[in-house]
Amino acid sequence: MHIPFVDLKAQYETLKDEIVEAIRGILDSAQFIGGEVVTSFERDFAAYCQVGYARGVASGTDALHLALRALGIRHGDEVITTAHTFIATAAAIVATGARPVFVDIDPDTYTIDPSMIERALTGRTRAIVPVHIFGQPADMGPIKEIARRHALYVVEDAAQAHGAEYQGVRTGALGDVACFSFYPAKNLGAYGDGGAVTTNSAAIAERIELLRDHGRTTHYCHSEVGFNSRLDALQAAVLQIKLRRLDQWNANRRRAAEWYAMELAESGIKTPFVRKGSTHIYHLYVIATNERDAMRNELDEAGVTTGIHYPLPLHLQPAFAHLGYRRGDLPCCEAMAARSLSLPMFPELARDQVRRIAAIARAAAERDGHKELQRKSTSSHAALRADGGKEWR
Ligand SMILES: *Cc1c(COP(=O)(O)O)cnc(C)c1O
């Protein structure tokens, strides 16, 4: 009866023999850090992302941190990003010594709103970090145009979007450099922590190689002080096997998303909006409803585990209090923090499970009779801005 939020065991069952054999191979080789398995996974992942280079690192957080460092981002710089993301996006900026500057999101796709970026620029702005949140690419066309005009770097946070496309181009190939996480629950997940940086720049790839391995140029020579942030061989072996299935898993997620959309149509619940020309790979299936907390309780009571991504936007996190943001500064982020609900989503999710989840959600929405409010919430972007997002709160 219970429906989990993600089901990593179901996936493992389908891969067990292959994974166990690969892990045994690593144990036999006793090559745990670096080596042929890591470089061959890097080659496969670069090819998958349609870029020249992929470099494995220890986590998605490190991928972001090292990518920003590789670009020379440092103390005194400002980096534009979104507050509607996991804390790692901004933590990586802080780790370089730079200051994160938060820009509001588009109320339909939940990715950074390009029309709000230029007013956030200062003489210190060096880069933009768009996040392909929930599995849908940010609106990279206008973002890259702004970056070009103002000579800024674009660093993709692709931690939730392995394999998603924007106008026919895969994430990982959409900016100057891109950062992936292989945290177990991500669309491409290791059996532990892991991450990767992808780029078409040989110079950036080389900087990542140095930074991830203590600035090491030869065994005993270090050209600079770097970090210990390597992808280990066990994780690379697992990832290499899983990468071959990623497109099929993403297709299964899209199919589950279609079922949800069908079941939730006309319910007043706002389902994910996919921008024209983009593909969404549904790392998370996030709906929006004014009765989020009641709906979440009812699902919980029925044995359905849900999540909230994210209940407290970054600009209001205690960790970033020193940045001086206030409630009301980013109305769309704040509205989503109050209204968003992440429903179970994983490639093995079955038709009847979606039917059951949707029936409970629909009943909760109807009982709370919030259709009128929901109708308002889909009002135009401009209207939402004009009233400072009040309708949403
Ligand atoms: C998971 C995630 C990260 C961090 O990745 P880790 O591998 O957990 O360090 C960064 N950004 C986003 C948007 C994420 O979802």
UniProtKB/TrEMBL annotation:
Record flagged with keyword Transcription: no
Region (Disordered) location: 366-393
Database matches in Pfam families: DegT_DnrJ_EryC1
UniProt biased composition (Basic and acidic residues): 366-375
Coiled coil region boundaries: none
Keyword annotations from UniProtKB, A to Z: Pyridoxal phosphate
PANTHER family given in the database record: 3-OXO-GLUCOSE-6-PHOSPHATE:GLUTAMATE AMINOTRANSFERASE, TRANSAMINASE
Family, similarity comment: Belongs to the DegT/DnrJ/EryC1 family.
Annotated protein name in UniProt: dTDP-4-amino-4,6-dideoxygalactose transaminase
